[in-house]
Write a structure and sequence with these properties.
By secondary structure, the protein is of the alpha/beta class. The chain contains 6 helices and 5 strands. It has a domain of about 110 residues: Rossmann fold (3-Layer(aba) Sandwich), CATH 3.40.50. The radius of gyration is 22 Å and the shape is elongated.
């Protein structure tokens, strides 16, 4: 009986001492800024090609004008800075959300980013989070995939609060288990 109690005590001590690894979310700022820059280049080209027609017949008569013009106007500003501001808001939501308590949030800005937290995150299992960032849009398209095995891909749309909540619920497995 004494041996059983000792064994039980040791088992409990080991289990309590085991710390499960926090899920890691790496925000891919390099992708985010590059996507926004490319989007601005695309809409600015569209605007140059359609500016004369828009002046002649009005925006209502030009295909895609209603959805493109807010992006054209937002692209006058620095799209990379706008992305960084959105990322700051997203990081704030991760830090403030009780759903994200057990999640490590890491920001990757570009390949020159040699911070130890970034290197550690990429060496181990993590979730890569990217934004298909559209300048001027209140809600942004997001995607994430489990790395390095790439066996799960998720996506959605939202403001920083909505994105943080959904991502944290996914990586902490509060929702369904997705089998691939």
């Amino acid at each position: 009986m004494k041996q059983l109690l000792t064994l039980s005590f040791l088992l409990v001590a080991v289990l309590v001492g085991c710390d499960t690894a926090k899920p890691v979310v790496v925000l891919d700022g390099w992708w985010n800024a590059d996507y926004a820059k490319t989007r601005c280049e695309t809409v600015n080209k569209w605007h140059r090609e359609n500016a004369a027609l828009i002046s002649q017949v009005g925006c209502d008569k030009v295909t895609s004008c209603q959805e493109m013009m807010p992006v054209v106007e937002a692209c006058v500003l620095d799209s990379a800075q706008e992305v960084r501001t959105f990322e700051d808001k997203l990081a704030t939501e991760f830090a403030a959300s009780p759903d994200c308590r057990s999640v490590q949030f890491v920001r990757f800005k570009n390949p020159d980013d040699q911070k130890e937290t970034v290197s550690d995150a990429f060496r181990n299992k993590h979730w890569l989070l990217g934004l298909d960032y559209i300048p001027g849009a209140e809600k942004q398209q997001w995607w994430m995939e489990r790395s390095p095995d790439h066996n799960a891909h998720m996506q959605g749309e939202g403001n920083p609060n909505e994105i943080a909540r959904k991502v944290c619920n996914i990586v902490t497995q509060k929702g369904a288990t997705i089998a691939n």
